[in-house]
Amino acid sequence: MAEISLQPATLSVRSMREADLDEVLHIERLAYDHPWSRGIFTDCLRVGYQCRVYEQEGELIGYSVHSVAVGEAHLLNLCVKPSRQSRGFGRRLLRTVMAEAKRQGADTLFLEVRLSNRAAQALYESEGFNEVGRRFDYYPAGKGREDAIVYACSLKAIDTGGTA
Question: Which domains does the chain have, with CATH numbers?
Answer without folding.
Answer: 3-154 (3.40.630.30)
